[in-house]
Amino acid sequence: MSASANESGLAVEQDVRPCKHMEGMVNSLADGTLHGPARWYTELHAMHCTQCRAAVRNLRTVIATVKELGGEDARPTAKMSDERRADIVRAMDEVDAPEGKA
Amino acid sequence: MRRDQAGPPGTTTRRDESSQARLRAAFERLFDAQQGALLRAARRLCGGNDDEAQDLVQDAAIKAYAAYLDGRFEEGTNARAWMLRILTNGFINGYHRKKRWEDPADIDDLEAEGAVSLRAAPADQPGSALFESTLDEPVERAVAALSPDLRACIELVDIGDMDYAETAATLDVPIGTVRSRLFRARQQLHRALTPYAEQRGLLQGRAG
């Protein structure tokens, strides 16, 4: 992860819990899967509730930070060992030539 | 649509050798392009254990190849998401199988009876040198420290960009379970990352 990504991604605030009855909607608002009246209601609630507002911000920060692990520019250095690659090739050979056909 | 009119899934009964070789080469290109991302995902899922992670990727590669020959991958769709789904499904099935196998005995009772510890060796625990050497980012280590069910949800939705419905189908749980697991996972990640942000002076002000 780059230094700038660290700065934007890990600037998390201290632990804040949303109102108990809003947990599901706050979570969905944060990841963009909340729509229609539920979204409108949650946004309105968060405007007046400092806990829920902070929780949405925290969740968005966590989501954005974690998402970077799957980005195209995520460190591509992980490689299968030669031994495992050879095992995969052997298993693919078996799929190509099932028992009795080899 | 199947790629040919061959017999049982994954077999090559009537496929000619050149088309077989073409399919295999195409799959190998697909897998090579994704293997780094898959291995990293597998390491997170396996809590940093590289050996288990390589096993998981190996199994996923073979299942994916059989599915590919069977025409269950649509060209032009997201290959990473497809393989990640197979990988995570393999992980979660393996985890539940292992849990069923291990559950009948109470580990504390067994340990009380004998001097040998049945718990994971310190080197297998998150936070050990092994864990640190395969997962080199605090964020990655925080994901790997979640429980397996929460880890799988984060891997599919937040890292793999899969929607809730696909995730629920992959993990064979209701959508509501995916939602609640994601909330718990994100809360735990937030708590785990706060000290790191604090250490680096990245912490913003309190709620307001």
The top-level CATH class of chain B is Mainly Alpha
Total beta strand runs of chain B: 0
CATH structural architecture of chain B: Orthogonal Bundle
Largest interface: A-B, 52 and 58 residues
Poorly predicted regions of chain A: 1-9
Number of strands of chain A: 0
Strand content of chain B: under 5%
Alpha-beta content class of chain A:
mainly alpha
Number of domains of chain A: 1
End-to-end gap of chain B: 55 Å
Per-chain topology:
The complex is a heterodimer of chains A (102) and B (208).
Chain A: H1 3-9, H2 23-31, H3 36-48, H4 50-67, H5 82-96
Helix pairs in contact in A: 1-4, 2-4, 3-4
Chain B: H1 17-45, H2 50-69, H3 79-102, H4 107-113, H5 129-134, H6 138-144, H7 148-159, H8 164-171, H9 175-199
What does this protein structure show overall?
- The complex is a heterodimer of chains A (102) and B (208).
- Chain A has 102 residues and is an all-alpha fold.
- Chain A has one domain (3-76).
- Helices cover 61% and strands 0% of the residues of chain A.
- Chain A has five helices and no strands.
- Chain A has helices at residues 3-9, 23-31, 36-48, 50-67, 82-96.
- In chain A, α1 (3-9) packs antiparallel against α4 (50-67) and α3 (36-48) packs across α4.
- The longest helix of chain A is centred in the middle third of the chain and has 18 residues, at 50-67.
- Chain A is elongated and about 65 Å long.
- Chain A starts with a helix and ends in a 6-residue tail after the last helix.
- Chain B is mainly alpha-helical and 208 residues long.
- Chain B has a single domain, classed as Winged helix-like DNA-binding domain superfamily/Winged helix DNA-binding domain (Arc Repressor Mutant, subunit A, Orthogonal Bundle), CATH 1.10.10.
- In chain B, 66% of the residues lie in helices and 0% in strands.
- Chain B contains nine helices and no strands.
- Chain B has helices spanning 17-45, 50-69, 79-102, 107-113, 129-134, 138-144, 148-159, 164-171, 175-199.
- In chain B, α3 (79-102) packs antiparallel against α7 (148-159), α6 packs antiparallel against α9 (175-199) and α8 (164-171) packs across α9.
- The longest helix of chain B is centred in the N-terminal third of the chain and has 29 residues, at 17-45.
- Chain B starts with 16 loop residues before the first helix and ends in a 9-residue tail after the last helix.
- The model of chain B is unreliable at 4-8 and 110-133 (pLDDT under 50).
- The chains are: A mainly alpha (102), B mainly alpha (208).
- At the A-B interface, α1, α2, α4 and α5 of A face α1, α2, α6, α7 and α9 of B.
